[in-house]
Amino acid sequence: MTPPAAAPRRVRRPEWAGRNYVLLTAAAIVTNLGTHGALIAAAFAVLEAGGDGGDVGLVAAARTLPLVLFLLIGGAIADRVPRHRVMVAANALNCLSQAAFAFLVLTGDPQLWQMMLLTGLCGAGQAFFNPAAEGMLLSSVSGEQANRAFALFRMAMHGAAIGGAALGGALIAAVGPGWVLAVDAAAFALAGALRAFLDVSHIAPREPGGGMLSDLREGWREVIGRPWLWSIVLQFSVVVAVVGAAEAVYGPLVAEDELGGAAPWGLALAAFGAGTVGGALVMMRWKPRRLLLAGTLCVFPLALPSAALAVPLPVAGLAAVMFFSGIAIEVFGVSWMTALHQEIPEEKFSRVSAYDWFGSVAMLPLATAVAGPVESLVGRHEALWGCAALVVLVTAAVLFVPDVRHLTRRTHEVAKAEAAALAVSADAEGPAGRLG
To answer: How far, rounded to the nearest angstrom, does the alpha carbon of residue 164 sit from its chain's CA centroid?
Structure first.
């Protein structure tokens, strides 16, 4: 007698991968696949329309400037209304602006001001989306597996970014930048549809506040009252600026003049992307007890790519350095998200995230703008060594902040011990102590 066929085993999601987490991860994969191809497509659309490198820079700046200007407002709104509505509205704006950009490229002769306007709308959408998305992700995870959840999310996001850039480059060569922009518009539409199904019933309704400025002041007090938070935000305002200048301005120039062209630089950037995926894999298993100490120590390797370009190292060495720095920044990124999730009240996630984002990107446009004049003034290699030195100096300075060195991962056992200590303290104080 033939034994009955075994029933297929049902794949069970981990407990920490709830419905919202799965939807957020799926939507992030979709948007990163589209957006990273579209960033390349926008540059080629400008060049095909007769623009030069300066015009490409203007279009890129047109995207960054609204992002900086509206981030804090976006964070305040995301803590005032349901976050998923902000995310869907931002995705709708990005969809429409990218669709219009694609239409102009496919059907006519787009003007520079039109491309700047449409990419500016896209940047404004991201300013409202980013704080809401980070707040929603932080609120979708609970318990001691937050570290693993954030690592998997970031791994999926970075993997999609690598794939999106590769696919976008291939599609631009095959069918032109207009169709890649159209694909990005469709990706925003699909991602917005997924995010519309997010469940926010577990989030307590927000109490009516005193207005936008009051909300922003409350978020600022949350940041400034935590030395570990504002010190690392300040640190990254410098780190992101100098690393961005090195990668956006000096890296392509070194590659062109000393490494053999664009292909070696593309390989180095791909190695960095692969490193971020590897770093997320590491953080799926590793849970450093001192979150910010481990994360901050892993910021020092971000000085290595600038130093490697200053030498310059051969292509294989540069790729190895970029891969290692990608791993290191992911260790910081997951540790940072875990610290925010652990220490910041849920109702203030988006405002704190907005100040974090603002600090990270505020100096980037200035740094990329002055990179050329600094090179003319002191020389390219000296400028790159300066970038590396600044990363080391500001990171070392942050280690002097006691909270950065001592902030500890709060396990279930630690949380129980803290609750017991608070209860004992309250009993010891008595009614007079609690009133006083």
So the answer is: 16
